[in-house]
Amino acid sequence: MLNYRRKVFALTAAAACALAVPAFAQEVKLPSTLTLTAYDTGSSGFNIAIAVGKAFKDKHGTDVRVLPAGNDVARLAPLRGGRAQASMMGVGVYFAQEGVLEFGAKEWGPQPLRLILASSDCNAIGLGVAKDTGVKEVKDLRGKRVGMVVGSPALNQNALAVLAFGGLTKNDVKLVEFSSYGAMWKGIINNEVDAAIGSTISGQAKEAEASPRGLIYPPAPASDKAGWARVNKISPYYSPHKATCGVGISAQNPVELTNYPYPIFMVYASQPESLVYSLAKSMIVNYDAYKDGAPGAAGLELKRQILSWALPYHEGAVRAFKESGVWNAEHEAHNQGLIKRQDILAATWNAFLKTNPPEDKQAFLKGWMAARAAALKAARLDVIFE
Predict the structure, then answer these.
(1) 94/157 Cα distance (integer angstroms)
(2) For the stretch 344-373, what's the b/e string if a residue is b when 16 or more beta carbons lie within 10 angstroms of its beta carbon?
(3) Which helix (H) or strand (E) holds 158?
C-alpha cells in the first residue's frame, strides 16, 4: 500500500548557495505568454497566482493570464483542452486523479495530473467546533451535530476524515445538511450545528469565534499514529500540520491539526519537462519576489513542500528538486508508485468504456466505481472511495 504520510524536507544552506544566479539565468526558459487557471477572483488561490505571475513577468518578461473558475471541473477543462498550461488548484486534483465524485462522469475519468509546488502556510483545515459544546478532542464529537454541504462531496469527505481521527463515523454523529459553505458556518452561530469543516483563518471561523458560542479546533496530533491511519484511509491528501495562525491559534500557542496544501500548482503529465522545470526552478530561486505578494504565497517555499504527497510530481519539478538537493530515493519510489496507480486507473477506465456502460449517469458511476475498486484491490492498492 502506498504511504501517504507527510514527509517535509528542508532545503539546506549549502544547497541554497549552490543555486548560482548565472547558471539559473541560462537554464530557465519561460514562454512569452502563460495561461493559468485558479479559484474565483479574490480567493487566496487567485491572488497567489497573480503574485507568482508578476514574478514571472519581472524576472523573465512572461505575460501571465489568470483565468478564475468556480469549480474543479472548470479549472481543469482549459488545461485538458490546451487553452492553459497550469492551474492553482485545490484538493480537487486528488479526486481528478482518482476519477471519483464529479470526475467519475463519462466526460472525465481519472486524469494524469502532476504536481509542481504547493502552499503549506501557517493555517490548517479541520473541524471548527462551537466552544459551548464542551468538546476538547475530536472523539468528544460523538452525538454532536456536524455540518455537511449539499453538492460539495469533497468538503464533506474532509469532515468525515477528521471525524475518523477520533474513531468516529457518520453514524456516530448527527449530520446536518446546508445549502452552502457559508450557511453551514452560520449554522454554528445560530446553534443549528456544532461543528463545520474549514480553515482556521477563514472569515467564517473568525465570525463564529466572536459569537456567543465561541469556536475551537480540536487537535489531531501527529503522534497518534492510529488516528492518522484512519484519516488517511479516507483522505490520503491530509497530513499532520502544526498550525500557528487562526482561531485561538498563534506562534506562541500552536495546535497540531489536519491539513492539505492550498493552492496546489499543477499541470498535466503531458506538459514538456523543460517548461515545468523552468516554472519550478524560477519559483524556487525567485521565492523572495512573490512570497509577500499575497497571503499564503509564503507557503510555496521549497522547505515547506511535502515531497511524498498524494499526487506525483512532474519530472520537470523533480529535476529542479534534485538540483536543490532535497529529492532522494524514497521520494522517487513514492512518486513512481503514484504514477503506477494513475496508470492502473487509466487502463481500468479505458477497459470500462469498452464494456458499453449504461448511459444513465448514476448507473455509469456505479459501474465505474465497481470496476475501479476491483482493479485497485487486484493491484493491492488502497481503494479509498468505494
Answers:
(1) 12
(2) bbeebbeebeeeebeeeeeebbebbbebbe
(3) helix 153-165
Q: What is the pLDDT of residue 226?
A: 98
Distance CA 291, CA 355 (A): 50
**pLDDT for position 43:** 81
Contact predicate 355/319, CB 8 Å: no
Please state which CATH class domain 125-259 belongs to: alpha beta
Please tell me whether the peptide bond between 263 and the residue prior to it is cis, using omega within 30 degrees of 0.
Answer: yes
| Greatest C-alpha distance within the chain | 62
Which CATH fold topology does 13-120+261-339 show? D-Maltodextrin-Binding Protein; domain 2 (3.40.190)
Q: Which residues contact 224 (CB under 8 A, 6 or more apart)?
A: 165
How far, in Å, CA of 276 to CA of 117, rounded? 10
Spans of all domains in the chain = 13-120+261-339, 125-259
28 neighbors 246 (Cβ within 8 angstroms): no
Binned average pLDDT, 10 residues per bin, the chain of 386 residues: 40 37 61 94 89 97 94 93 96 95 96 97 94 98 96 87 98 95 94 95 91 98 97 93 93 96 96 98 98 93 95 98 97 98 98 97 97 97 87
The helix-helix angle for 203-210 and 181-189 (nearest 10°) equals: 10
Nearest to 268 by CA among 138, 83, 86: 86
Strand-pair category, 145-149 with 174-178 = parallel
Quote the Cα angle for 46-52-53, to 5°: 85
- Going by C-alpha positions, the residue among 347, 348, 278 that lies closest to residue 314 is 278
Collapsing DSSP to helix, strand or coil, 95 comes out as helix
The H-or-E segment that residue 36 falls in is strand 33-38
Q: What pLDDT does residue 202 have?
A: 85
Q: Do the domains at 13-120+261-339 and 125-259 have one common CATH topology?
A: yes
| Nearest by Cα to 90 from 296, 234, 386, 374 | 296
